[in-house]
Every structure is written in structure tokens, then in C-alpha cells.
Specification:
The protein has 2 domains: 4-136 and 177-237 and 255-388, Alkaline Phosphatase, subunit A (3-Layer(aba) Sandwich), CATH 3.40.720; 408-482, no CATH class. The strands form 4 sheets. Strands 1, 2, 3, 4, 8, 10, 11, 12 and 13 form a 9-stranded mixed β-sheet that branches. The protein has a 4-stranded antiparallel β-sheet with strand order 14-15-16-17, with helices on one face. By secondary structure, the chain is of the alpha/beta class. Mean pLDDT is 93; it is low at 126-134. The protein is built from 11 helices and 17 strands. Helices cover 24% and strands 17% of the residues.
């Protein structure tokens, strides 16, 4: 019998907010981990919703699936997937699966989940903050889309948790409210469908919430789990980013408006938001259990990308290529998972999930993936020749700039087409606070990692720019692969 799949994807949840790290209170995720596997070192390819979600569904990197940015914004460079890209949902549909989708899509502005085999749950969700499917794309030629009420004027005072920018609305980093982003509605629609699922017919249900995305607005009761006096900011919080790209410091300066107490309140609200999402996840688990489906369903909990959450004095996500923006939650458990309570240290990518789901469903795909199946880990094995390094690809979060990175257990190297490069020795600087890229004694290391980037670029059809004199800014060209 084919297994059922329940996929619960949060938005902007750091990898160390999952079990085994001991930072967030997530009893339902703990329950899943006890009945499956925690991938402690799982990463997204891009610190951005759309590219990472497209990678999850396709098993490909942005250079091969074609989604580089958030597709529904006025200045988007790409609106959707390349024409030849196939998603795992289409294979499941052809294999007899019933597919259901509730919540955030953010893969393409040109098509929605139903175009890729899903039944979209609760049409009214398409008009909420957790909209599934297509949105109206603003027209850059029409500045009315930029018109906002309550723009900040000169001399405006800043309120609690607020960041002021002249000419923009005030940005409030945290607050309290019920049903943030409409996530409860997303989960309710999924629960209602579970109650009426057909007997003995395989299904795949995707539930996409918007939390714990900023602004960190949560029901007040979850703040009680994290007393403010016990909140400690990350060790790298005071990093002045002096030897990093100027863009990093410019990004950091916005958040320096917040006092230390407001920074702690921000982290308190972020942690509380993770616990709130866990509670919503628990409602799904209970519904599956009540229907007698839990032992026949493979449950996957993951996030699309991370959040700096105070690391290096930064919040949310962006071009600063730090661990916290790329490290994601990744837990799989229940029906058919032989490994129980295991914590895997191998490097895992969002691109691994498409081949994993297809193998679990007994489907042989006639195409290649950038990722590899995680099934051996779910069986309590460690596959031979598993990767020892991971790569990232981003062209910027609407503030465009080409950036590529590669990291392993020893070094992390970042090519920044918009500024100078970064190199970190992770054995003595795991917090990525000392940039070694400009030091002559590390020149050979830098060249070796440039080779890794070019080899990956070749394998994944990524140009890293072209050969023109003012655009080819890498220190070494692809010809070094022939040395």
C-alpha cells in the first residue's frame, strides 16, 4: 500500500528551532522527532521564499528551475518556473494520489497549486495573508502600488519595537494578536479535509503557514513560555560586520534603532511564534490520529528558509550569507519510518525532498535532480558517498546582487558579485565573525573553493555572470577547472 504524505511547511523558521537544539518549546515537533528523524544540518538553496519552495517541489536549484526571486512583486526578474520543470506533485497525481493544498504557495505567479495536481482547500484563503495560488502583480509603471497611509515624516518618534524610515510606513517588529497571518484558517481547512478523506486511497496534503515570518505577531499566551528576563541574544549579536560587505552593515543599521530590550523582545516573540506554529501542527497530528491515519502517513515538517533572529545584529533574512538564514527545520516521522528518535548530522538540502517523496511512493522518475533521496536515513542507514559540502544560489531578495556560497565542515566561502568575498574557518569561527578572504595566507583556500563553485555552476547550468570585463567579477574564471 502506498504511504500517505502530510507536509507542514512554515515560513522563515530557523533550523535550531527544531528538536535536539533545545531553544524553542515545540512538544508536537518533539513527538514527531521521537517517531522519526531530525536532520540537524538541513539547508535551503536561497534565503528567500519562492526560490526555496520551487527547489522543494522540483528537486532542482534556482539555476535549473528558473525562480530567483519573489515572483509576485513589481520588480521580479522571474515570474515562474521554466517550461520544462516538473514538480513531484505531478508524479504523485499520475500515480493515483489525491493531492490537497492549504496555505501559502509562492512558487509561481503564473500558475497555482491546482495547475500542478493539487485540489486547493478553501477558496477564501486565496484572499488572505496565507494566500495560495496567484496574486495580483503590481505594475512598476503605476506608482499607486507604492502609496501607503501613515508614512513617517521628519521628526517622527519611534514607538515600542518600531523602526522608522522617512517616507515609509512605520515597521513594527513584534506584537500580539490572535490568528496571525490567518494561519489558523489554513490549518482549519486542512483539518476539515482530513475528516472527509476517502478510505484506503493514498493522499498527499501540503499545509503552508506564514509564521514565524516577521513581523513577529503572536497570541499573547505563547509569550509566557519565554520570560523576557531569560532571553539571551546570540553570541554574534554585537558583530560590527567591519570586514564584511557594506550592504551587510547597511542592513544591520536599520535594526540598530531597537534598544537591547527591544531586541530581546523581538527574540521572545520569534520563539513564541515557533511555539504557536508547533501548536497548529499538533492540531493536524491529532486530526490524523483521530482518523486512524497517523501510522499510515509519513509526516514531514520543514521550513523554506531561516531568520537571523538577532545573529550579527540582523533580523528576518536577506543577502548577508550567514548560517541562520539558510539553516532550516527538517523532521520526518511516523508511518513506515523505521528510524526512531535519530538525529542525523549529514548535510541535507531542500532539493532532497522531491526524490525522497517519489522513492517513498514507489515512483521511478525519468529525470535528474540536484538532490538525493533521504530514504536511507529514514531506514536508519547512512548512504555511501553522501555529500560533504553544500552550495547556495541567490540573486538577491529584490535588492538584487549575485551571491553564491559553498561550505563544508571546515570552510565557508561566499562569492559576492556586488562587493568583496567572504571566507570563514568554521572550526574556530562557527559564528562566522572573522572574514579571512582578504588574507594572503588563505589565497590557496579561496582558489580551491572557487573551483568548487565553478564545478557546481557547470553541473547546474549556472553562469555566475558572463565573461564581459565589467560583469565577470569572480577572482578566478571557470578555466581553473582545467588546472
Amino acid at each position: 500500500m502506498k504511504p500517505n504524505f502530510l507536509i507542514f511547511m512554515t515560513d522563515q523558521q530557523r533550523g535550531d528551532m527544531q528538536p535536539t537544539f533545545g531553544k524553542a518549546i515545540t512538544p508536537n515537533l518533539e513527538k514527531l522527532a521521537e517517531n522519526g528523524v531530525v536532520f540537524r544540518r538541513a539547508y535551503c538553496p536561497s534565503p528567500h521564499c519562492c526560490p526555496s519552495r520551487a527547489t522543494f517541489f522540483s528537486g532542482l536549484y534556482p539555476s535549473r528551475h528558473g525562480v530567483w526571486n519573489n515572483v509576485d512583486l513589481a520588480d521580479a526578474l522571474s515570474r515562474g518556473l521554466y517550461d520544462d520543470v516538473r514538480l513531484f506533485s505531478e508524479d504523485l497525481k499520475e500515480s493515483g494520489y489525491h493531492l490537497y493544498y492549504s496555505g501559502k504557495w509562492h512558487v509561481s505567479a503564473l500558475e497555482g497549486p491546482r495547475d500542478r495536481g493539487f485540489e486547493e482547500l478553501s477558496e477564501n484563503l486565496r484572499k488572505t495573508g496565507a494566500a495560495a495560488g496567484r496574486k495580483r502583480i503590481p505594475d512598476m509603471r503605476d506608482w499607486r502600488w507604492l502609496e501607503q497611509k501613515n508614512d513617517v515624516k521628519e521628526g517622527a518618534r519611534r514607538g515600542d519595537g518600531e523602526i522608522v524610515r522617512i517616507g515609509f510606513p512605520k515597521y513594527r517588529q513584534y506584537g500580539e494578536a490572535e490568528n496571525p497571518f490567518g494561519d489558523e484558517d489554513v490549518v482549519r481547512a486542512a483539518r476539515e479535509k482530513i475528516r472527509e478523506l476517502p478510505e484506503k486511497e493514498p493522499f498527499c496534503m501540503y499545509v503552508g503557514t506564514l509564521g514565524p515570518h516577521d513581523p513577529y505577531i503572536v497570541p499573547e499566551k505563547y509569550l509566557e513560555l519565554y520570560p523576557l528576563e531569560k532571553i539571551e541574544l546570540p553570541e554574534s549579536f554585537e558583530d560590527d560586520l567591519a570586514d564584511r560587505p557594506n550592504l551587510y552593515r547597511r542592513t544591520q543599521n536599520r535594526f540598530r534603532q531597537l534598544t537591547e530590550e527591544e531586541q530581546k523582545r523581538s527574540l521572545q516573540h520569534y520563539l513564541a511564534f515557533c511555539s504557536y506554529e508547533d501548536a497548529l501542527f499538533g492540531e493536524i497530528l491529532k486530526e490524523l490520529e483521530d482518523r486512524g491515519l497517523l501510522d499510515r502517513t509519513i509526516v514531514i515538517y520543514l521550513s523554506d528558509h531561516g531568520d537571523y533572529a538577532g545573529a550579527h545584529g540582523l533580523w528576518t533574512k536577506g543577502l548577508p550569507c550567514f548560517e541562520e538564514a539558510y539553516h532550516i527545520c527538517s523532521v520526518a516521522g511516523y508511518g513506515g519510518i523505521r528510524a526512531k528518535g535519530e538525529a542525523v548530522e549529514a548535510l541535507v538540502s531542500l532539493a532532497d525532498y522531491a526524490p525522497t517523496l517519489l522513492e517513498l511512493a514507489g515512483i521511478s522518475a525519468d529525470r535528474s535532480f540536484a538532490g538525493r533521496s533521504l530514504v536511507p536515513f529514514l531506514e536508519g542507514k547512512h548512504p555511501e558517498n553522501w555529500r560533504t559540502e553544500l552550495f547556495t544560489q541567490t540573486n538577491g531578495n529584490e535588492l538584487y546582487g549575485i551571491q553564491r556560497a559553498v561550505f563544508d565542515d571546515r570552510y565557508k566561502f561566499v562569492y559576492n558579485g556586488f562587493d568583496f568575498d567572504e571566507l570563514y574557518d568554521l572550526t574556530c569561527d562557527p559564528g562566522e565573525c572573522r572574514n579571512l578572504a582578504g588574507k594572503e595566507e588563505y589565497a590557496s583556500v579561496k582558489k580551491a573553493y572557487y573551483k568548487k563553485l565553478w564545478r557546481f555552476a557547470y553541473e547546474n547550468r549556472d553562469m555566475l555572470g558572463d565573461t564581459y570585463i565589467t560583469t565577470a567579477l569572480t577572482d578566478y574564471g571557470p578555466g581553473i577547472l582545467e588546472e
